[in-house]
Amino acid sequence: MFRRMVFLPVVLLTMPFLASCGEEEDSLAMLSVEFAVEDQFGVEEASFVKGDTANLVFTLRNKGSSSITVYYTPPMENAIARRVADDSIVWDYNYGKFFIQAFVSFEIPAGSEERVVIPWDFSATPELADDVPAGLYDIEPDFSVQDKGGSSFVTLDADDAVRVSLQ
Fold it and tell me: Which of 25, 87, 107, 152 is the most buried (most CB within 10 A)?
């Protein structure tokens, strides 16, 4: 299920998606999703110290010449942090949160992008771990949107993990 990946010092994953929804004006075929880790100053890096905040950034980019309407059921995004030393999950962004059961949409104009940021201050999710000690962590994104018919999906999952070091 999970493959370890070493990406230092900068990681940026791009996943272009070819939807099966043809040449529709709002086709997800024009959407690419990128996942990157940035520090609180907006500088991409893979090494942090306690007190830093790592911003996990999903960028949805419309590469087409017409607008795209993106649909999702909340939450659209999540991320977990897994300690490399023992493969234990120490943080889950959506753990313990409640979401409405709704089909939500937003539009991305041609040539534009939307950014979704998940901050992690290197604290642990109490039900998962007591602390986040220094070491290596794989941050695994979980992201999903779909077209208006609900048949074509854009997803990122554990195979798209990035590795960060906490000093």
Answer: 152
At residue 41, does pLDDT exceed 90? no
More confident residue, 156 or 35: 35
Measure the CA–CA gap between 80 and 140, rounded to whole angstroms. Answer: 5
Q: Enter the pTM of the model.
A: 0.74
Instruction: Report the alpha-carbon distance of residue 88 to residue 132 in Å, rounded.
Output: 11
CA-to-CA distance for 63 and 111, rounded, in angstroms? 5
Q: Tell me the longest C-alpha to C-alpha distance in the chain.
A: 50
How many Å apart are CA 146 and CA 153, to the nearest integer?
Answer: 4
Alpha-carbon distances, residue 43 vs 18, 92, 99, 107, 123 (angstroms): 30, 23, 31, 28, 20
**94 contacts 76 by C-beta, under 8 angstroms:** no
